[in-house]
Amino acid sequence: MKQKELVTTDDAAKYLGNLKTNTLEGWRIRGYGPRYIKVGRLVRYDLADLDAYIQAQTRRSTSESES
Question: How far apart are CA 61 and CA 17, in angstroms?
Fold first, then answer.
């Protein structure tokens, strides 16, 4: 079984383009942003989920609606 590559909130923020960690924390509270994993008290992000989130944000024009 392949092990998931999990990263911290700080690493995920950097991976997503140098976001502030507060941005990811706010997204979690509001229920949007990339999927995350809770391991006890720790929050971790799977790199595959971050890549999927990035892909979902891809648009062809500014008038294109979010799906």
Answer: 20
